Amino acid sequence: MANHALASVATRLGARGYGIWRAWLRAKGFGILFLARASGRTPPKVISSLPAEKVANDVAILKDKIPDQSHAMTDVDYHFSNLWFAAHANNWPLATFYWNESISHMKWAVRIIPVRKDAAGQEIKLGDILQAIENSPYMQIGKTIEAKDLAEFEKAYRFTLDGCYSCHKAADKPYLRPHIPERPASSMINFDPHADWPK
Question: Are residue 78 and residue 152 in the same domain, yes or no?
Answer without folding.
Answer: yes
